[in-house]
C-alpha cells in the first residue's frame, strides 16, 4: 500500500482516529493502538492546556501517534484562530484540525468562517486540515488558501449514517490536489472501505469505534477495512458492465464513398 | 518553476507511445465499461486496438454529449487581423519565409469586417493573427478590442503566446477565451517545425495555459496540429495537459480542437495522415474521458464529415470562415492561412443544424458575470 503524505509527513496507516466518547481512557488507549492509527485528534476543549500531565494526553502519548488538536466547540473564525494558538502552545504542534460549527444540534461546519479561518491560520504557519461539508467548490477554495488536506463529511458527526454524500465525495476526490480525508458519519468498517475504494486518501473514525460494544475489536475491524478498501482502489476495481444501448449506427457514413 | 512543465518533464514520449500501441481489446473493453475514465483508459480508446469498438464509442460519446450540452451547437467565426509573422513554421502559409503580401487591418478595415460578420448573425468572434509583436502586440489588441467590443458579447483570441500581465490587461477589454495549440508535444520535432522566431521556444509555449490560468481567463483552448507527429501520442499529452489544467485552474473552461494539417502556400506534406475514422475515434475518446470539455471543429473539414460528426461529441462549429486578413470585406483575395473545405454560409450551416434537430447558438455570454 502506498504511504500517505500530508504536509511532508508520511503515514503508513490511512485510518485516523478520534478520542471522544470512550467509556474510559485506558480503553481508548487500547483501541487506538489496536487501530494502527498514526494520527489522533484531540479536542482542545477537553485538554487541560496548563497541565502537561493531563490525563488524556498521557493516554495518547506513544511515539507512533501524532496528535491533531481540533477546535471543536468554536463558532467563529476568530475563536478558531485563538483556539489554534492555544493548541499550538499547549501541545507543541502546528497541526490543526479546523472545525467550526455554530450549529449545536448537528454540529455542521460553517463554510464561510472555515474558509476565513483557514486562510489566516495558513498565514500563521499552521498545517490546517479543515472539517467541511462535502462541498467540492469549498474544497477547492480551501486548497487554494493552502490547507494541507480537506476533510469532507460523509454524514453528520456521530450519526453513523455512512457515506450520505458519496456523489460529492467522488467529485472532491477527482478534483483535489491535496489529500482528501473523509470525516464524520462513517458508522461501520464497510463505510470506511467504501470511502477508500472511491479514492479517499484516509478516513477519520471516532464514534463508530468508541461506542461499539467492543471498541478494541472494532478498531481492528476498521484497520482491516481501510487496508482492504485502499488495496481495492490501488488494484483498480473491475468495471461494472452496463448493457450497451442498441440504436441506429452513427459511424456508417465513414464507409460511404 | 511549477506548472505543467514539471508533469511534462516526467513523461517520456517514446514510453507513452509504446504504452498506447500496447493496449489490447481487453483494455478497450475495460475503458468502455468504466464509470470515471483515467488517462490509461484514454490511451486504450485512442489506440489501434479500439478501432473495432468505434460504433460503441460513438454511441456513448453521443449520449454523454447530449446529457451535458443538450441539442445545441455553438457557432464561432475567426476574424483574421493580420498575416504578418516573424516565425518560420514549416506548415503555415503565413510563415516568414513565404513571400506573400503582408497585411494588418487598420481601424476602418476592422470595422468593415465586423459589419459583415455581424450581418451573418454572429455575436462571438475569434481574433487571429500571426506573431509580429512590433505591429500586432498587446497595444494593437487592446485597440482592436475597444473597437470590436461594442459589437460582440464575446471575444476570443488565437494569437502569439503572451505574458500573464498582457492577458490580464486584455480581460477588462473583453477578452474571454484564448486558444493556444502546442502544435506538437514532441520536443525535438517541435524544434524542426519551428526553426526560427519566438515560437521556437518550446517551453514558453507549453507554459502558456498556466499563464492564462493564472491571469484568470475564462476559457482556454488546447490542441495539436494533427499531421506533424504521431497523433495518438500527441493527443495523450494534450489530455494530460487538460487534466492538469482542469484540476489547477478549476474555474476555467476548456476546449479542444482537432486541426488536421491542410494544404497551404509553401506547405509541408503531413508526416502522419489521420483518416476520418481515426478523427472520429479521437473525438469520441475525448468525450469519453471528459464530459465537460468543449470539442470544436473548424471549416478545415468537409461538409459531409461535419454533418455527421456533430452528433458524436462536437459542441462548437465555425462557419463562413475566411482565413485571410480582410477576407470578409476588405481584401477578398489576400492570401489565406490554409484552405477551407466547408464553404457553406452560416445560414446554410444553421439550416443543416436545425434539420438535424440542433439549435445553433450565436450568443452564449453576457458581460458582467
Ligand atoms: S503558425 Fe502562426 S506563428 Fe507559425 S508561421 Fe503561421 S502564423 Fe506564424
Automatic annotation (TrEMBL), chain A:
Protein name per UniProt: Thiazole synthase
- Quick check: keyword Cytoplasm in the entry? yes
Q: Which UniProt keywords apply?
A: Cytoplasm, Schiff base, Thiamine biosynthesis, Transferase
Biological function: Catalyzes the rearrangement of 1-deoxy-D-xylulose 5-phosphate (DXP) to produce the thiazole phosphate moiety of thiamine. Sulfur is provided by the thiocarboxylate moiety of the carrier protein ThiS. In vitro, sulfur can be provided by H(2)S.
Q: Tell me which Gene3D superfamilies the record gives.
A: Aldolase class I (3.20.20.70)
What species is this protein from? Chitinophaga agri
Q: Identify the pathway.
A: Cofactor biosynthesis; thiamine diphosphate biosynthesis
What family does the database annotate?
A: Belongs to the ThiG family.
From TrEMBL, chain B:
Q: Pfam families given for it?
A: BATS (PF06968), Radical_SAM (PF04055)
Cofactor(s) required for function per UniProt = [4Fe-4S] cluster
Name the Gene3D superfamilies on file.
Aldolase class I (3.20.20.70)
Highest taxon of the lineage: Bacteria
Reply yes or no: does the keyword Nuclease apply. no
The cross-references to CDD domains, in alphabetical order and at most eight, read: Radical_SAM
What are the entry keywords?
4Fe-4S, Iron, Iron-sulfur, Metal-binding, S-adenosyl-L-methionine
**One of the GO biological process terms:** thiamine biosynthetic process
Residue span(s) of domain Radical SAM core: 71-300
Instruction: Provide any one GO MF term from the record.
Output: catalytic activity
Q: Which InterPro entries match?
A: Aldolase_TIM, BATS_dom, rSAM, rSAM_sf, ThiH, ThiH/NoCL/HydG-like
Query: What protein does this entry describe?
Result: 2-iminoacetate synthase ThiH
* Upper taxonomic lineage: Bacteria, Pseudomonadati, Bacteroidota, Chitinophagia, Chitinophagales
Amino acid at each position: 500500500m502506498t504511504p500517505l503524505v500530508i504536509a511532508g509527513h508520511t503515514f503508513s496507516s490511512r485510518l485516523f482516529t478520534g478520542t471522544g466518547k470512550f467509556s474510559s481512557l485506558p480503553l481508548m488507549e487500547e483501541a487506538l493502538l489496536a487501530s494502527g492509527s498514526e494520527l489522533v485528534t484531540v479536542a482542545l476543549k477537553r485538554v487541560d492546556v496548563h497541565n502537561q500531565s493531563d490525563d488524556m494526553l498521557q493516554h495518547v502519548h506513544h511515539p507512533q501517534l501524532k496528535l491533531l488538536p481540533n477546535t471543536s466547540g468554536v463558532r467563529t473564525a476568530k475563536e478558531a484562530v485563538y483556539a489554534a494558538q492555544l493548541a499550538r502552545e499547549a501541545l507543541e504542534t502546528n497541526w490543526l484540525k479546523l472545525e467550526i460549527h455554530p450549529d449545536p444540534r448537528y454540529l455542521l461546519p460553517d463554510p464561510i468562517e472555515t474558509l476565513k479561518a483557514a486562510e489566516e491560520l495558513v498565514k500563521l504557519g499552521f498545517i490546517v486540515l479543515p472539517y467541511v461539508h462535502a462541498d467540492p467548490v469549498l474544497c477547492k477554495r480551501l486548497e487554494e488558501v493552502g490547507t494541507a488536506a480537506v476533510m469532507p463529511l460523509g454524514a453528520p458527526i456521530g450519526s453513523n449514517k455512512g457515506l450520505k454524500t458519496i456523489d460529492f465525495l467522488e467529485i472532491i476526490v477527482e478534483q483535489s490536489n491535496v489529500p482528501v480525508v473523509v470525516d464524520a458519519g462513517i458508522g461501520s468498517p464497510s463505510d470506511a472501505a467504501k470511502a477508500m475504494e472511491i479514492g479517499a486518501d484516509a478516513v477519520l473514525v471516532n464514534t463508530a469505534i468508541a461506542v461499539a460494544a467492543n471498541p478494541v475489536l472494532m478498531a481492528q475491524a476498521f484497520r482491516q477495512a481501510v487496508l482492504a478498501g485502499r488495496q481495492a482502489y490501488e488494484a483498480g476495481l473491475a468495471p461494472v458492465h452496463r448493457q450497451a444501448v442498441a440504436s441506429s449506427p452513427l459511424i456508417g457514413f465513414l464507409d460511404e464513398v | 518553476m511549477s506548472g505543467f512543465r514539471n508533469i511534462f518533464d516526467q513523461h517520456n514520449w517514446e514510453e507513452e507511445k509504446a504504452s498506447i500501441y500496447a493496449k489490447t481489446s481487453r483494455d478497450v473493453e475495460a475503458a468502455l465499461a468504466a464509470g470515471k475514465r483515467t488517462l490509461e483508459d484514454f490511451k486504450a480508446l485512442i489506440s489501434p486496438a479500439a478501432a473495432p469498438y468505434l460504433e460503441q464509442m460513438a454511441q456513448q460519446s453521443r449520449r454523454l454529449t447530449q446529457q451535458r450540452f443538450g441539442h445545441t451547437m455553438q457557432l464561432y467565426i475567426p476574424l483574421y487581423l493580420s498575416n504578418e509573422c516573424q516565425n518560420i513554421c514549416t506548415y503555415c502559409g503565413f510563415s516568414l519565409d513565404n513571400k506573400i503580401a503582408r497585411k494588418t487591418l487598420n481601424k476602418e478595415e476592422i470595422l468593415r469586417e465586423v459589419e459583415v460578420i455581424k450581418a451573418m448573425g454572429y455575436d462571438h468572434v475569434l481574433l487571429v493573427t500571426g506573431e509580429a509583436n512590433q505591429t500586432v502586440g498587446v497595444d494593437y489588441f487592446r485597440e482592436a478590442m475597444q473597437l470590436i467590443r461594442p459589437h460582440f458579447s464575446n471575444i476570443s483570441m488565437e494569437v502569439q503566446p503572451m505574458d500573464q500581465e498582457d492577458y490580464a490587461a486584455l480581460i477588462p477589454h473583453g477578452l474571454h477565451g484564448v486558444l493556444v495549440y502546442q502544435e506538437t508535444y514532441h520536443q525535438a520535432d517541435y524544434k524542426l517545425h519551428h526553426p526560427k522566431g519566438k515560437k521556437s521556444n518550446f517551453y514558453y509555449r507549453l507554459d502558456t495555459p498556466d499563464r492564462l490560468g493564472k491571469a484568470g481567463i475564462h476559457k482556454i483552448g488546447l490542441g495539436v496540429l494533427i499531421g506533424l507527429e504521431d497523433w495518438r501520442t500527441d493527443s495523450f499529452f494534450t489530455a494530460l495537459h487538460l487534466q492538469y489544467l482542469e484540476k489547477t485552474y478549476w474555474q476555467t473552461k476548456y476546449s479542444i480542437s482537432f486541426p488536421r494539417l491542410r494544404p497551404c502556400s509553401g506547405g509541408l506534406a503531413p508526416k502522419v495522415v489521420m483518416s476520418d475514422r481515426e478523427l472520429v475515434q479521437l473525438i469520441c475518446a475525448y468525450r469519453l474521458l471528459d464530459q465537460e470539455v468543449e470539442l470544436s471543429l473548424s471549416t478545415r473539414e468537409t461538409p459531409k464529415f461535419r454533418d455527421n460528426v456533430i452528433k458524436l461529441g462536437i459542441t462548437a462549429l465555425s462557419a463562413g470562415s475566411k482565413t485571410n486578413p480582410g477576407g470578409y470585406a476588405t481584401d477578398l483575395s489576400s492570401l489565406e492561412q490554409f484552405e477551407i473545405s466547408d464553404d457553406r454560409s452560416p445560414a446554410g450551416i444553421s439550416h443543416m443544424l436545425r434539420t438535424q434537430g440542433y439549435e445553433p447558438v450565436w450568443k452564449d455570454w453576457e458581460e458582467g458575470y
